[in-house]
Amino acid sequence: LSPGAKMGCFTFIKVMMILFNLAIFLSGGTLLGVGIWVRVDGESFVNIFGALSSSILQVVNVGYLFIVIGAILLVIGFLGCYGAQKESKCLLMMFFSVVLIIFIAEVAAAVLALVFTSLAETLLTGLVTPLLKEKYGVDETFTKIWNLTMTEVHCCGLNNYTDFNNSYFYAEHDSYPVQCCDMKDPCNSTLAAQTDVEGCFKQILKEIRTNAGVAGGVAAGIAALEIAAMAVSMYLYCRLDEK
């Protein structure tokens, strides 16, 4: 390529880098703003997005999640956009390093999710089952979350109805939650065993595997964008030496 063509290519990629990272920066700012809004005024968030958002807020603590993701996107967007605009090798290298770290973390998380599913089930059983025994039927918010989850997912407990054995709820009502018997009441041990409703962990895993193609496609798309962003930042970084 002639020097003019090389310069034109460099300028085009630089502009695309700026626009792409500007979009990331604005997305991060939006998420950060929503996260702060949720933390400051969660009640209005629930009123706008409905009852399900209340459960999501309790389970995921979406406010902090949005703040963290928003802050990361802001940093990435700033480094990429400002680094390309100012043609700063330092900022471009920092951008490359941050995206590379995120990419490696995502790959590691995917591998762990695939390899250690049974370990995750064991850990969750040790953490969640005692909570079900102690808090279900006692803590109103905790009970609502589990009732909504079991009803929507058509599941019972984390593993199955036996998670409620020796629990406060069973001692108080002499029965299991109706979700453990396909909404039949009273839900005694005989009916629960006959109905054999699966635990929520297994049901959620089934849903994930059913939609694995979609999830894999989204993950592959994100990975491709990250690889492209790293490649472009390295191209600009190396071309700055030639300039």
TrEMBL record:
Coarse class of the protein's main subcellular location: membrane
Subunit structure comment from the entry: Interacts with SLC19A2. Interacts with NTRK1/TRKA.
This protein's encoding gene: Tspan1
Alphabetical keyword list: Glycoprotein, Lysosome, Membrane, Transmembrane, Transmembrane helix
A Pfam family it matches: Tetraspanin
GO cellular component: lysosomal membrane; plasma membrane
Localization per Swiss-Prot or TrEMBL: Lysosome membrane; Membrane
Protein's UniProt name: Tetraspanin
Gene3D superfamilies tied to this protein: Tetraspanin
Membrane-spanning intervals of the chain: 12-38, 58-79, 91-116, 214-238
UniProt family annotation: Belongs to the tetraspanin (TM4SF) family.
Presence of the UniProt keyword rRNA processing in the record: no
Topology within the bilayer: Multi-pass membrane protein
InterPro entries to which the protein is assigned, alphabetical: Tetraspanin/Peripherin, Tetraspanin_animals, Tetraspanin_CS, Tetraspanin_EC2_sf
Function field: Structural component of specialized membrane microdomains known as tetraspanin-enriched microdomains (TERMs), which act as platforms for receptor clustering and signaling. Participates thereby in diverse biological functions such as cell signal transduction, adhesion, migration and protein trafficking. Regulates neuronal differentiation in response to NGF by facilitating NGF-mediated activation of NTRK1/TRKA receptor tyrosine kinase and subsequent downstream signaling pathways. Plays a role in the inhibition of TNFalpha-induced apoptosis.
